[in-house]
Amino acid sequence: MKTIFEPFRIKTVEPIRITTRDERKKLLEKAHHNVFLLKSDDVLIDLLTDSGTSAMSTDQWSALMRGDESYAGSPSFFRFEAAVRDLMPFNHIIPTHQGRAAEAILFSILGGHGKTIPSNTHFDTTRSNIENSGASADDLVIAEGNDPACYHPFKGNIDTERLECYLKEKSDTTPCIMLTITNNAGGGQPVSLANIKAVSDLAKKYNKPFIIDGCRFAENAYFIKLREEGYANTDVKDIVRKIFSLADGMTISAKKDAFANIGGWLALNDDELAEKARTRLIQTEGFPTYGGLAGRDLEAIAQGLREIVDENYLAYRIRTNEYLGERLQALGFPIVRPTGGHAVFVDARSWLSHIPPLNYPGQALTAALYETGGIRACEIGTVMFGRKPDGSEEPAAMDLVRLAMPRRVYTQSHVDYIVEVFEELAKNKSNLCGFRITEEASAMRHFTAKFTKLT
Ligand SMILES: *Cc1c(COP(=O)(O)O)cnc(C)c1O
Question: What pLDDT is stored for residue 448 in this prediction?
Fold first, then answer.
């Protein structure tokens, strides 16, 4: 079948306000050409992030009503804990208000000056929590993972040879090994089960806890089913269980593959570590049976976890991004290959080769997507990474534009609309021009920077 079948029907709708190109031109000028400064009501298709933007199901909405807000020992916590443990068999499951809170707690215990923490690629909040503790966050993804055009089925894999050298050299300073599945910063690329197993073996050999950042565990497991030899007939649920049985702990944001709008957790097998984590949790998040969450949020997560491993949903999810990637490539847009689980990344530097990196080709494409079609995307390039701590500026390694797909929110006709907008852009490519920053913050400038258009 060619049609991407959305395995749900729509009961409640959120109207999208249709705007004209002239209106959008004015709105963008008012927002100083920064799409983060737009009001979301003025956006037609919002691809800024897939975090916390999922559509909840009828079962999740009814679960909210069952939420028990008792301070301690709420039945909602025990339903949450059972749902997590059904997929991720850890001894201690500690709820937090987001993924970064789980990371902050973990690295308040394992981090510290002189420590070294390897991963395939640390996500930016993970890196920031590690560095904030005084430790160094080291990325050891395979070489293919840094090459946007090169095809590899498991581009998120860690380089296990480099990891072993790292462990030999830095055994004394390394408190744990991490692995991000899928590798968000590297384009939502999956990690193979063979690679996860190899990391687990190294962790045992060097006696280090192995911690998985599991934000997109279901998408990763589905890629294993599709691409790794020997798993075509294994249930995604069993692949998920296998993945986590190889680890000693996990951090996760429930805003991704738990279909929730908020939440996260830290899970650990080690009793002593878990005891320290709960003590810290009480200081920063709350009592161990609610973390930073309401009882109803714990219920939404528990139900979301039962739904995310549905293979019909995952087929729709993975195929939607793949389809968008195929159509954009057919129009001549270079993209990060293969398309990842949650997003399509367009290589704006290569497509807009007439715009130098310091005039922000990613920003040019992002602004044009909004003006032309009301689509909001996210620049991941020189605007985001180009400013150095001393205030000087350098081109980032790549100028990408990320089209992140919220879960269960858009249909194939929305995707066809996105493709049409790109088609329109392709006709006017030579008219697109670069930008200059007129105002910026000293860190994380992409959120608030103001731009003027160079003509
Ligand atoms: C989103 C994300 C986080 C942080 O989670 P928050 O809930 O946003 O704090 C950590 N790691 C990865 C891979 C993520 O995608």
Answer: 95
Assess whether the C-beta atom of 121 lies below 6 angstroms from ligand 1: no
pLDDT of residue 295: 98
Nearest CA to ligand 1 atom 1: 253
Is any ligand 1 atom within 6 A of the Cβ of residue 122? no
Angstrom distances, CA of residue 140 to CA of 104, 160, 338, 418: 22, 8, 20, 34
Where the chain has pLDDT below 70, the residues are none
Q: Which atom in ligand 1 lies closest to the alpha carbon of residue 263?
A: 7
Predicted confidence at residue 147, as pLDDT, reads: 86
pLDDT at 363: 98
Q: What element of type H or E holds 180?
A: strand 177-180
Q: How far is the CA of 388 from the centre of ligand 1 (A)?
A: 23
Is domain 58-308 given the CATH code 3.40.50.300 in the classification? no
**Whether CATH 3.90.1150.10 fits 21-50+310-453:** yes
Q: Is the CB of 180 under 6 A from ligand 1?
A: yes
In this predicted structure, what is the pLDDT of residue 397? 86
Domains of the chain, by residue range, sit at: 21-50+310-453, 58-308
Whether residue 213 has its Cβ less than 6 Å from ligand 1: yes
Quick one: pLDDT at residue 149? 86
Is residue 60 a contact partner of residue 304, using CB atoms and an 8 Å limit? yes
pLDDT at 390: 87
Helices (H), 171-289: 193-205, 217-227, 236-245, 271-284
